[in-house]
Design a protein that fits this description.
globular; 402 residues; 80% helix; 17 helices
């Protein structure tokens, strides 16, 4: 799972660092590049719930193999783009194929890990993804100094294909069916023998206020997240005056902040659950971290120092990321055997926010060429997400949830 998230962010983030070179070669403007960034995320978001249901129905072994092969091929063919239309279509197909990755992961965690470790598991997984993205930024800069941007994408695509083959060979959806798992481990996991796939209680799911609260919370968090994944290198070069090499390294700082934040959020949330109970323990990291992240973004807007702005963005990313692992843990706790669908809903709303973010910023830059209002929208979404946490109650489980 950790390797999977690292590869996922490797393939997602490489386009943002290569974006200035791609824009120049393909003749794209800011608005078109924003649409390219959003094509992936809108397609990814719209397919999350169906892909989450498929993960619940057919298991993460088959689904993750299909997902990773698909996105690896789409990463490789990104280098074949000849203009806006072809690049837009490739990124949209990329998003369709990658959808379901995290819901399938949630399904695997539900079967393989005891409840007390859910927060830590998602903290580690998303942390590794963010570190993969952080490494990608300077790595792509290094590669661009030695080869055309078209040649970098096939190299990254090959990494996922190796993972998919190893995963299908080794993993089993049910711990009972893995030859390396013994009885003591099954007792530790608390894993029951598999049961027939249950029908999703859609009415109860759509009428559960906590489900909608955690979904809109994730919308606010991922809106800001996608600024770091897409426009940040361009912001550092154009608004703060850094060259490509320095922008590549500094763009990795918020992703390192995200990695630190998701890990700390998962660990702290699990500890708070043991001390204060499920309801307060899952809420507290987001209720505290997100308002502080909004204040930090406002400090970015008002600081004249380029270096200070880069470090403050990293701090804001860290504080907002405290809410991420608890959000995924809530999906497992509310959803149980339907955790793929519930986490798919949350990730769908989150990635709709992620799709809107680069689109809004790209259009604003094309028309006005200013960055401050774009950053203010990130701060506003963090405040919205903090209020949503107040309505989340992970004890309100779905019927038939195990």
């Amino acid at each position: 799972m950790l390797l999977l998230t690292a590869i996922a962010y490797l393939d997602r983030v490489c386009i943002s660092t290569a974006a200035p070179a791609m824009k120049a070669d393909l003749g794209l403007n800011d608005a078109q590049m924003g649409r390219v960034f959003s094509a992936f995320t809108f397609a990814y978001a719209l397919m999350e719930v169906p892909s989450g249901w498929l993960a619940d129905r057919f298991g993460p072994r088959l689904m993750l193999t299909r997902i990773v092969i698909w996105w690896s091929v789409m990463t490789a063919v990104t280098g074949l783009a000849t203009g806006f239309v072809s690049l837009f279509v490739i990124r949209m197909l990329f998003g369709i194929g990658e959808a379901g990755c995290f819901p399938a992961m949630a399904r695997a965690f539900t079967r393989w890990l005891p409840t007390r470790e859910h927060g830590r598991a998602f903290g580690l997984a998303v942390m590794t993804g963010a570190l993969g993205g952080a490494i990608t930024q300077p790595l792509v800069v290094w590669m661009l100094n030695r080869m055309y941007w078209q040649h970098t994408f096939p190299i990254f695509g090959c990494v996922g294909l190796v993972w998919a083959l190893a995963w299908y060979w080794w993993f089993r959806d049910d711990p009972h069916r893995h030859s390396a798992v013994n009885e003591a481990e099954l007792r530790e996991i608390g894993c029951q023998p598999p049961t027939p796939h249950e029908r999703v209680p859609w009415r109860a799911l759509l009428n559960n206020p906590s489900v909608w609260a955690v979904c809109f919370m994730y919308f606010g968090v991922i809106y800001g997240w996608y600024f770091y994944l897409t426009w940040l290198p361009t912001y550092l070069m154009r608004a703060r005056g850094f060259d490509l090499q320095h922008a590549g390294w500094l763009s990795s700082l918020p992703l390192i902040g995200i990695a630190t934040g998701v890990l700390c959020g998962g660990l702290v949330s699990d500890a708070l659950v043991r001390r204060l109970g499920l309801k307060i323990g899952r809420r507290l990291p987001g209720v505290i971290g997100l308002p502080l992240a909004a204040i930090t973004i406002l400090a970015v807007v008002h600081t004249p120092s380029p270096i200070a702005a880069a470090w403050l963005l990293a701090l804001a990313a860290l504080l907002a990321a405290l809410a991420v692992a608890p959000g995924w843990a809530v999906c497992l706790e509310i959803g149980g055997i339907h955790s793929g669908v519930v986490s798919g809903m949350m990730n769908m709303l989150g990635n709709i926010g992620g799709a809107i973010s680069p689109l809004v910023i790209g259009e604003w830059l094309q028309r006005h060429g200013a960055w401050d209002l774009s950053l203010m929208t990130v701060a506003a979404c963090y405040v919205l997400a903090a209020f949503c946490w107040l309505a989340v109650d992970p004890t309100k489980r779905l019927p038939l949830a195990g």
